[in-house]
Amino acid sequence: MSTGVLPFVRGIDFSRNDFSGNRFPKEVAQCTQMTWLKLNRAQLERVPDELSRLSNLEHLQMVRNKLSNVHGELSDLPHLRSVIVRQNQIKTSGIPTDIFRMKDLTIIDFSHNSLRDVPSNLEYAKCAIVLNLSHNNIESVPTQVFSNLIDLIHLDLSNNKLDNLPPQMRRLINLQVLKLSNNPMTHFQLKSLPSFKFLRVLHLRNTNRTLNNMPPSYEEFENLTEIDLAMNDLPSVPDGVLKLKRLRKLDVSHNKITKMEFPEGSMELLETLNVSDNALTVLPDGIIRCLKLQKLYASYNKLTFEGLPSGIGKLIQLQVVYLSYNNLELIPEGISRCVKLQRLKLDNNKLITLPEGIYLLPDLKELDVHNNDDIVMPPKPLDKQKAMAFYNIDFSLQNQLKLAGQSPGSSSSSVPSSSAVQKDLIQRRKDFIRRRRYQADQDNASKVIQGMTKIAKVGRESIDEETFLGSRPAISWKDKMEKQKPRLDYSDVFDEDVGEGEGLWVWEIENFYPSLLDAAFHGHFYESDCYLLLKTTKEPSGNFSHAIYYWIGEKTTLDKGMCAAVHAVNLRNYLGASCRTVREEMNDESDEFLELFHEEIVYIEGARTQSGFYTVEKPTFQTRLYRASVSTTQVEMEPVPITVANKVRLFAVKLNKKDRKSKAEIESCNQMKTPPEFWIALTGSPNPPEEPIVEHVPLDFVPERKKLYQVQIGMGFIELPQVEYKNGILRQKMLQTKCVYILECTSDIFLWIGKRANRLLKMAGHKMVTELHKMLERPEYTQISRETEGEESTMFRSKFIGWDDIVPFDYTMTADTVQRRGADVKDRKSKAEIESCNQMKTPPEFWIALTGSPNPPEEPIVEHVPLDFVPERKKLYQVQIGMGFIELPQVEYKNGILRQKMLQTKCVYILECTSDIFLWIGKRANRLLKMAGHKMVTELHKMLERPEYTQISRETEGEESTMFRSKFIGWDDIVPFDYTMTADTVQRRGADVKVIMERDKMKTDLVSLFLDRLPPMCHEDADQMIEECNEDLEVIEPFVLEGKKFVRLPKNEFGIFYTTDCYVFLCRYYVINEEEEETSDQEDLDGGSENGDASVEKKSEGEKVDDFKCVVYFWQGRDANNMGWLHFTFSLQKKFENLFKDKLEVVRMYQQQENHKFLSHFKKKFVIRRGRRNLTLNLGGRWPELFQMRANGSAVCTRTIQVDARAEKLNSAFCYILRYPLPVPDENGTAGNIFVWLGSKSDPYFHPIADEVARELICRGDDDFHIEVIKEGDEPEMFWQGLGGKKAYDTNADFMNYTRLFRCTNDKGFFSVSEKTVDFCQDDLDDEDVMIVDTGEIVFLWMGSKASEVELKLAYKAAQVYVGHMQMKQPDRPRKLMASLKGHESKRFTRLFHGWSKHRVPAGD
Hints:
- Pfam families: Gelsolin, LRR_8.
- The protein is α/β, with parallel strands linked by helices.
- It has a 21-stranded mixed beta sheet, with helices on one face.
- The radius of gyration is 50 Å and the shape is extended.
């Protein structure tokens, strides 16, 4: 069906279609008003015949085709103004001679063809203004051509074989563009050049130009803006060229120029300069006066650093600089002041470094410095914008110090550091570049300021006018309402006599407007309608008073309710009444409203009038099969056909599902392989019939048009009119629920009865369908089927377009899920399941969706797509309309890549993908543009040859389908969000990270990084603390777990712990009575002897007041499991609770994490051995054992821990104890030796403690070991034998004065850093967090295996902040930042922890 729009089409761009053979659309001949046509890259082999019908065609393009001639149809186009047929295979004989006699022909382009001569009769194209014959094989130009074509403005004869040009060329006095490049031109002297006073562009590249055959003067060429003299072996630039004042582009590349000088006052407008491939050693100094220069090409010269002008920074408009293949060692610092620079190529030079400001150029996109072997790039300055990239948190040191409550200079000396000076320099550079950018954009800024000044001036005038008006007296609200009342004409809506007398008027809302009801229907209201009522009464004064009501039904549509309210106000304005409009709702009417009908109103179910809204019909979903291919990073989806047999199979599935309730089985068969069950069902016999099966349906068979009758009854009569419908298409909406219809299909007759049809109508329908069956001649097998609304059979529904109540669904879902949830036929809204399969393993559901059968097809699956298959280029058309015409130009895009930004919200586009056509409608497109788009997409579908399964999809802006979006690069409407948030947080706060960050700044706590390290406790204070902690200790009872019971620990083992055991210490503390202490203090102050007896009395009573407290310390070794704690809580703790009641306190501690109170009870004699106590006492002691004594932070935390007995474990800053048993006792009966090794840098305070620990705890009671105290450097040979030989070891432990441990976590809901105590151990490294460890020289970032990615990123930035802070605070000790992974720690890291061993594996891991 034709839409009738083609005669109004003014232009179509058919480029990039395949019109080879006879594929050119015949419908183009109907575009009789077409004025332009583009057929570029259309595979044309000849000019289409249909062009002869386009008598109004003015512009024709046939670029990049396979045309060998243009004979025929071009001669039939009398109004042709431009012929562009470049890049074909046209020969001189293939151009008709009569086309140049057309009086309107102005543009002639036969470039890139195979012309040997100038086309015949070209001299008759006297109106031509553009002539392009470039890239041919023309050897000469006839004299008469230039004699007649005196109006030429653009002449391009480049890339031919011209040796000379006729002297008549001087007649082209209007010439503006002359291109003669790549021609021999050996005899061309340019004598006619002075005649071209309007010349703007002159191209003489590779035309054998010398200083002798160039014009001596260029004073006549005031308008010359572009000159190309490349590839001419010129020794210098002609002097006249350098004096041109309006020149914008100069190309003198590929010559032999050794020197250039710009005269003062010239080249001020120059924008592009190309001097590549010459012999220049110095660029002209006058180049710095070319303030508008944007592109500078000077590669392949002999330029050095001295050859570049130092003032190059003045060229603030410079965007491109090419200096490749020169002898540059440095480039001027001023290049970093060219604020608009985008591309800088410095490859293949001898560069050593670059200016530091090169990184600060805001627009720099390309920097090429390859093949500069000795170059050292300058360090990149810290960029605040990069620091802000981590979750909107500013990790700059200045900001973090401010948040921590410190001034940025509080941690540093008054003398500014070098880093601060460097930062100031960088900031000054940034400020300078910002000012230069402002200077570069000054012209645009001045225009904006002028516009703002003009607007402000108008604003002041309006303010003055308002001030003048304000002096007038105020207008009353009634006058103001009357003034603002819209002056609308309601005569078309309401009659003239409405409200002119007493009475009641009732209107019903129909199709947005009120319709007056007859008085017989007053008081009858349909529940789905709305009504407007006017009651007019006459007052004693003779005036009329009005009461206006609008009644809203319960089930009314939105448009009816809105229109009732609007027209009630319109009626009041029409009558000029002062009453208010009253809203009345169904079942809640007011008494005044009911009195209008004497309190008798009737509600009727349903609606009497139609809604004004259009009913949106969802398109029926069709099963489609797509072939996916990958092109670069884009996935191409191309639909492929589904056979007719598959469609029939799908119809059988629907028939079974609806009529047979899915109880029947569906089996496919063909003529060659038919099962007996088929013949039994058809003939009653399992054998096929004897008669041969012949093809009795003609190829041109067209089903007879269906007839739909509506049964109507009246007073004693029945009528049977036909329902009119267009294009032979029946739709479900034609059937009304109150009616009865008869559908006649020749061999099938259906009687359809609506649910609300009355009994008489149903009876009439039954009678009429029987009579209709008898009246007309029909096949014997014709049947009458009775259909009830809502229960129609599949066969009846198949007669209507779009009627399919079987929801197309994903067959991986169950039927219950589909019925409950439905399935979106276009985009499934994440309700469908996705299942991947391959050819070897394809589920039955795939074949059911594709063919209707769970079994794969019998035909073999073959590879029919060639390996070099390339998807056809997509074409994007923009629909444009004007005064009575439509145009369809193509949107140009590079590299075949479509992007979402090409679609403008006010426009309509057609995206053609051969087997898919999409009509995209912008939200702000007007109604006419939408209509034109719908018509043009229909015509475009029919005009071009396409597969049968091609579909037209209509897309609305903001609701595009996935298949449409897949055609565009980078179109992804999934909002990126922070994955650290939960689903509840996203739902509550949204998923847009930028919005969340702006509204809810992320909180951080880095204060701990800026606090000073806790100073170590002196030995005197440590001894005093130990003494004070033991003052109130009355008794301490140790227990150790043996098997499943806790037993008392022998006294000689007090202070010895094993890493695999658990210990319990019961401590009884004396609690001083505060009242008694206060009383005794008061008595001491009184000092009276007379109170002596009383005090004795009080003391005797005080014995009853004294109290105690019991604390149970549970100590667990790092290799012990939790069974010890369970045994304690269920056995020993219960006994203690029964004994001490509420005076008991239980404290659980882990190895090397003990508190100071507990450690004080051992008085620095605290030994931790490896292994289990029972095994060591019975079987141990037969191998060397090495113990390290070390105190972290204070002497209270002194521990002696067993380490590997190897020499590299020694450190000159500590004391060690080596227990070395002899294999056989010596002649003195000594079983072994215990060496107390005192490091040369160890604290003498610990020397006697080490000796005591060795004698009391290391030496067993029954052992006969010799104890020897040795100093570093005086070790006997036996000492090194016990350590496996003498090896190198650490001689410095300065890290003890600087070591700090920080924990980075987000457990609190925000990122925070906290410092561990100075007495930290290996178990303080939390596997779920990130730790920062400072050694004074290195800052380690230790990453737990379970730490989140967010914590890793934020901890890294926090470590950088800490390093920067310490560099300011301790400039003499610079830190390096290094990473350390759990399980792969280096020795520099492990030595920071006392007694380092393998990491403990938590239970369950």
